[in-house]
């Protein structure tokens, strides 16, 4: 950036994974018919009083702990007053003055260089409704209104787009493995606003910042930041003042575009929420939440590499999908070798999830299915070829593994007498080849007989027992 230093701060709005909303008992859902999951509290009817969702507070505490934050022992809420169509009450319940968490940090790794990103605060609030712009009209879906959120605000210590996407990715991974949120950017449960300004190196003050709202993918975060840095640099070099404004990233033209100017800070008239008294959080309760915190991805990554001898790439393949990680660990509990499970997931399961374009949790395949397939292979009941045919069927159907095997006649022939009869017949038909080659090239003869045996049975034969029978049957061709 030549003589300019980039200053980036990031705000993330994260929908909490609760069954009901933050201050009402209306259900939380995605993709339901508009305005079907909303009640009088969400809509601000006169006399309707909010109550705090205990589970939402638990999830916020988990997030605070994972982000190394100081946790506020008293839960207090404020009103943020403004009128907008997506906010029917005319105010939002939030935590302006007393966030539940503050002074946190998250370590990132950019190309082998570690950096600690300081986090200013984490506070609980409620989401707004969703606006849908169509045919010159604006439609409001209040299903999202009142859904519990945590807002996580970093300090302006990020300096490049690479650091930004690593921070957002690491934050997303952390919250996903805590089971705090499903963090689906495409569904809006993990939203990202970026604040960017430029200043000359050595200058301690900050320039006017530009906010880029609602970035919905990691890829777009990088593109938006890189474009905005270039845009601001060109303006400064041409002696044009950077306006403090809000912009959005337009995917069609791959540029940030103006939404609105910010001449003055908006006066939201914050004051203490009168309908929710301060709540003292029991220290033992907070400690119990922290002590029962799920294992984070970083810890799992180290364990996979150290205990299972996975490469970093193999560990990341598992950990890139929360549901795949859960499936992997539930399969290990059944007693299968980790490397074998990894091989099934990397080859067979990955091709199926790519084919159907959904994660493993939406399939019919269960950890017990992989256990049975592996057991039948070790017992010589089926072959690896059979396993590759069985898994796609189990992925789509509710049939048991043994049903699939029997329906398709995929059991290997393992009866020694039956195999001996087949081998004897093959030897009779290849007697000349055996007599001429067995003493000098026994491997060739054994391979030929095994190949013919596989051909005659369509591959449905136990290879270990078959080789034992072949070696036994060929003994008479050895010299005394």
Task: Give a summary of the structure in a few sentences.
Pfam families: GatB_N, GatB_Yqey. With 480 residues, the chain is α+β, with helices and mostly antiparallel strands.
Structure description:
With about 475 residues, the protein is an alpha+beta fold. It folds into three domains: about 5-285, no CATH class; about 295-405, no CATH class; about 415-475, Arc Repressor Mutant, subunit A. Helices cover about 40% and strands about 20% of the residues. The strands form four sheets. It has a nine-stranded mixed sheet with strand order 2-6-7-10-1-11-12-13-14. It has a three-stranded antiparallel sheet with strand order 5-4-15, with no helix packed on it. A two-stranded antiparallel sheet has the order 3-16. The longest helix has 20 residues, at about 220-235. The N and C termini lie far apart (about 85 Å). The model has no long low-confidence stretch (mean pLDDT about 90).
| End-to-end gap | 84 Å
Mean pLDDT: 90
Report the structural category: alpha+beta
Helix percentage range = 25-40%
Strand content: 15-25%
Biggest sheet: strands, sense, closure?
9 strands, mixed
Radius of gyration, whole Å? 31 Å
Question: Any idea what the shape is?
Answer: elongated
- Poorly predicted runs of 5 or more residues: none
For the largest sheet, list the strands in their spatial order: 2-6-7-10-1-11-12-13-14
Protein name: Aspartyl/glutamyl-tRNA(Asn/Gln) amidotransferase subunit B
EC number: 6.3.5.-
Keywords: ATP-binding, Ligase, Nucleotide-binding, Protein biosynthesis, Transferase
Domain Asn/Gln amidotransferase: 326-474
């Amino acid at each position: 950036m030549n003589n300019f230093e980039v200053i980036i701060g990031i705000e993330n709005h994260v929908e909490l994974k609760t069954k009901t909303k933050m201050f009402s008992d209306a259900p939380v859902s995605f993709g339901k018919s508009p305005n079907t999951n909303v009640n009088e509290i969400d809509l601000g009817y006169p006399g309707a009083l909010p109550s705090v969702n205990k589970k939402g507070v638990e999830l916020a505490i988990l997030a605070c702990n994972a982000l190394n934050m100081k946790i506020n022992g008293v839960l207090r809420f404020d009103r943020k007053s403004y009128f907008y169509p997506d906010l029917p009450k005319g105010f939002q319940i939030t935590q302006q003055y007393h966030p539940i968490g503050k002074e946190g940090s998250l370590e990132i790794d950019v190309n082998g260089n570690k950096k600690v990103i300081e986090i200013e605060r984490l506070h609980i609030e409620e989401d707004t409704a969703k606006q849908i712009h169509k045919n010159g009209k604006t439609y409001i879906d209040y299903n999202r209104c009142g859904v519990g959120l945590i807002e996580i605000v970093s300090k302006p210590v990020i300096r490049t787009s690479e650091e930004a996407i690593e921070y957002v990715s690491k934050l997303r991974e952390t919250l996903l493995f805590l089971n705090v949120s499903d963090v689906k950017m495409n569904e809006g449960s993990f939203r990202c606003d970026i604040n960017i300004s430029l200043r000359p190196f050595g200058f301690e003050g900050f320039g006017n910042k530009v906010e880029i709202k609602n970035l919905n993918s990691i890829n777009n975060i990088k593109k938006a930041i890189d474009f905005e840095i270039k845009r601001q640099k060109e303006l400064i070099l041409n002696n044009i003042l950077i306006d403090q404004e809000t912009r959005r990233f337009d995917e069609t033209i791959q540029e940030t575009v103006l939404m609105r100017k910010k001449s003055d800070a908006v006066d939201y008239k914050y004051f203490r929420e009168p309908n929710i008294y301060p709540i003292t959080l029991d220290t033992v309760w907070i400690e119990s939440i922290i002590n029962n915190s799920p294992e984070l991805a970083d810890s799992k990554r180290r364990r996979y590499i150290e205990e299972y001898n996975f490469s970093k790439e193999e560990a990341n393949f598992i950990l890139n999908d929360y549901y795949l990680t859960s499936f992997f660990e539930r399969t290990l509990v059944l007693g299968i070798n980790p490397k074998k499970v990894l091989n099934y997931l990397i080859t067979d399961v990955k091709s199926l999830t790519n084919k159907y374009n959904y994660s493993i949790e939406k399939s019919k395949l269960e950890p017990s299915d992989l256990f049975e397939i592996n057991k039948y292979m070790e017992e010589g009941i089926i072959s690896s070829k059979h396993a590759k045919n069985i898994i796609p069927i189990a992925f789509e159907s509710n049939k048991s593994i043994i049903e699939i095997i029997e329906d398709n006649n995929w059991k290997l022939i393992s009866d020694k007498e039956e195999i001996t009869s087949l081998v004897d017949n093959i030897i009779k038909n290849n007697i000349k080849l055996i007599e001429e080659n067995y003493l000098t090239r026994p491997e060739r003869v054994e391979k030929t007989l095994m190949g013919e045996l596989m051909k005659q049975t369509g591959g449905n034969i136990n290879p270990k027992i078959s080789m034992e029978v072949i070696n036994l049957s060929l003994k008479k061709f050895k010299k005394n």
